[in-house]
Amino acid sequence: MSSLFPALTGAPADRPALRFGDRSLTYGELGAACGALAARIGGAGRVAVWATPELETAVAVVAALEAGVAAVPLNPKSGEKELGHILSDSAPSAVLAAAGDELPAALGDLERIDVDVRAAGPRPDPQVSDEDPALVVYTSGTTGPPKGAVIPRRAITATLDALADAWQWTADDTLVHGLPLFHVHGLVLGILGPLRRGGSVRHLGRFGTQGVARELNDGATMVFGVPTMYHRIAEALPEEPELAKALGRARLLVSGSAALPVHDHERITAATGQRVVERYGMTETLMNTSVRADGEARAGTVGVPLPGVELRLVEEDGTPLTSYDGETVGEIQVRGANLFTEYLNRPDATTAAFTPDGWFRTGDMAVRDPDGYVRIVGRKATDLIKSGGYKIGAGEIENALLEHPGVREAAVTGEPDADLGERIVAWVVPEDPQSPPPAEELADHVARRLAPHKRPRVVHHLSALPRNDMGKIMKRALRHD
């Protein structure tokens, strides 16, 4: 099959490909380094990659894909138990790492291959097919040990080419981001995406508003981030006029991995004139929908299905909704070339994840407008609240709470209620901890903006919300003793 990265040989050898801090590789250098490493790992079943935010991680993953070998990205912050599970489950034959990295004891029995980004070797030509595994990415494991989603080569090409269509993404684009490289967002979209287009990526190592401004002022055209990053940008804008000017120069600002609150959308647009584009995807599906660069950037929505992706909403019994009114909540199911193949060593979980006719059950709840725009209202397991006969998505209540001037952060859950079935519970980080907004005031605020039945019945004030590495709120950790 054709290469995932035609620019490794087709782009000018001196064109910038990757930059991490003050270290960089051109396409010529990247192709040579990947050729040398691919020759060392060719024929391996799977290789683990110690996925630090460094040049070596990008070279290791691209080399594995060039060699036709599946890469298993490892989170360097993983605990010993989680790391042990991933290694025993995926059984890699070696671990690829930067020469100076100190690896934990759990990796001690694996052959270690140090990645030399200045090595040179010819490009390999393995016999691979579209269905061959490209990556095994482990899910966050909120309901048990992480599951390894086997992502085939065709899913990567399908998603990246669909995003190129939606975002008008070309070789002329330079992407800046500071996302971790063991997730789909930072690795597939943030590293493999620019390389498939023949463009360039500048990784900040660690996200910071000054780094974003610097790179945009130096010619970067796109920014990828998660809501936590855009929230920091929105907070910094009043004090950093240069940041507002830099963001105003960007061609595209993209947020993903969780919903970006409407309040942050509005603050960024007001200061920069730019709309942040949201998209929706999962480890198992890569990308499903996006607001298009040439479409309406409707705050609070994740846009329309990408080319090649079928999307439907279904009732609790699996019956598809026959029309979309922007109000009726259903579970998202998707079908297309962007889907994973299986959960590694988990045929039971794989079977349960799909309908008999091949639709993947995402577990995400949404409403869809008549013109196709999708608005996520939360996870089926944690964000769908059934109260007083209504199905209520936590996400819209969280957005309403964030529009209150006294609320800095908010999360919404449901808890059992003898009368309502479930009552709505708000977890709020106040702007002023010494003077938090009263519960009744917040309930009235939500009722006025949405509907009376969507008001919180209980309000808890916190100093911070529990979040994971990608900035997602860990609602299972929100418990009131």
UniProtKB/TrEMBL annotation:
Residue stretches making up the AMP-dependent synthetase/ligase domain: 12-344
Pfam families listed in its UniProt record: AMP-binding, AMP-binding_C
PROSITE patterns per the UniProt record, alphabetical: AMP_BINDING
Domain AMP-binding enzyme C-terminal, residue spans: 396-472
Family: Belongs to the ATP-dependent AMP-binding enzyme family.
Protein name: AMP-binding protein
Organism, scientific name: Streptomyces shaanxiensis
